[in-house]
Amino acid sequence: MNTTSPRETVIEARGLCNRFGSQSVHEQLDLDLFRGEILAVVGGSGSGKSVLLRSIIGLRRPNEGDVRVFGQHLSQLDEAQRSRVERRFGVLFQKGALFSSLTVTENVALPLIEHAGLGRADAEHLAGVKLALAGLPLSAADKYPASLSGGMIKRAALARALALDPDILFLDEPTAGLDPIGAAAFDQLILTLRDALGLSVFLITHDLDTLYTITDRVAVLSQKKVLVAAPIAQVAETEDAWIQDYFHGPRGRAAYLATQALKEV
Amino acid sequence: MLWDGALARLPDHMELMTTTVTSANATLDTTSSPACLRITGDWTLANYASLKLCTAGLAGQYDSMTRIELEQLGKLDTAGAALLVELLGTERLAQLAETDTHLPAASRALLQTVYCSLHDYCIPVKAPEQAVLVQLLERIGSAVDTLKQDTLHLLGFVGLILATFGRLLLQPKRWRLTSVVAHVEQTGLNAAPIVALLTFLVGAVVAFLGATVLVKFGASIFTVDLVAFSFLREFGVLLTAILMAGRTASAFTAQIGSMKANEEIDALRTLGLDPIEILVIPRVLALLIALPLLTFLAMLCGIVGGGLVCALSLDISPAMFLSMMQNDIDARHFLVGLAKAPFFAFLIAAIGCLEGLKVTGSAESVGAHTTSSVVQSIFVVIVLDAIAALFYMEMGW
Predict the structure, then answer these.
(1) For the whole model, what pTM was predicted?
(2) What single-letter DSSP state applies at residue B123?
(3) Mean pLDDT for the stretch of residues B4-26
(4) Is A88–B109 a contact, with Cβ atoms under 8 angstroms apart?
(5) In chain A, what are the domains?
């Protein structure tokens, strides 16, 4: 990929500070998401990955600094404009966050009915398409979230995130709790959707296989800011104890070797 | 690389927000030979409704000989791709996606993804709804069945509590006094102000009612008897029990239910601990202690409320009120009222805990069972009170 030519940013976070009481999570954090790329954010537990996600999508007002999405400040928009921007987000929450009082199909159909103005029958039909796309078995479509397995919840939540064909997809640990086959299929699905729809993907993950197979850039969140944001090969070479442990520990090496093997085939 | 193509023809969304969306269409040109199906415009979610109509109109009007032109296809998203799959069928589209060179690589990849996932996947057709009458009967039937099941469960659970309690009685080391005291504080002490206030007000209201009605017969002095009888025998214990059903049964269900939803109960079991012994017995014991005490408080406050109204509007002085109570009212009435308290307490706590244990996985289930526990415990309290009233009447107490 060409990283030297100027690229359009869809998300621009500048000087972000997030504090909880006296505890500071982010200090002067800068991060860009370019159009059409898959950016993975990694960091130790408690390094504020989810907080960063919440600040970007406007669920949390950062203590300092600002976030521009499509060149606009979310916090400065009025309600209608903001809703229009938010419609271009697809968010997959860590635990799925499916509405427990609606069936899986209804969960996916809800944004279609509310925002795309489709009739109920059309919306549920299209919801079926999205569920198929996310790889959810047919039998799960009429179930309630409480009776789904963890992997199915992830897929259903992805289908809901994709409902409005968003421009930016936010994924919070999408492959956590999936079996390796499911996780690999999930990675492939995200890659295909990105290619086909030109999605920009903001991905929080601990899955080293995902990092090596689908990401364009990896941003490492450490010491309250983005330590480095670059293609994975470059990140893995960075002189930092945590990064070295992360990418060159036994799991990191295994994932790296596996990707190399894949590339040779 | 594959997706560089995607970048090149990315829709400019900022522009899209200000300009109108290009209209999309599918037209069948029968004049040419072979016939030609033209797919034009943006096949996106914004055009979904009109495209749906359009494709429905075209269904069955073309065959495998029809040439399909995709040159003028604009933007394509998953909704549009799904419509194309439905319009053309997966096989035809698979063929097109592989051979049609006019189509950008990204759109081809999208079409492939969509038809691969829609292959072997038919959107379910909902079973037709049954007639209203059948539905009504079905619901009545299932409600009766639920009532039966609930009753059986409750009886079984009461047995389980008694058995566990009996077993623990002989092993003082396993009594969880701290837990019991904490629950007495929560259910008893913390509830005292609200119980006192409510019964005081009801006592005043009963006295007002008595004064209004009895004054016509010149018997307003008997307001004292009315207040004392009603609070000692019925209102004291009944009001307290209903308050406890609303306040404590729901709290028990929510506490135990959220533990159940969080798999904490399962964790207790795997640690070889008995959830009944650890969670249920202390709560039942605590309510067995708290409810009679609160009942006593309720009786006092109700009588004080009644006495105040008597003093202010009927000119019955507190001293006279007390001496009338002493003359007319046996200690028997107090005992008869108080005797009901432990039974109410036991059932309220049992229902609260049982509903908590019935919670399944979701947070929604916690809410549903909390509602159910309040309704059930109030119902049981009132039914039991009615039975007790009949029993006392027959016994002449």
Answers:
(1) 0.71
(2) P
(3) 48
(4) no
(5) 8-88+169-231 (3.40.50.300), 97-165 (no CATH)
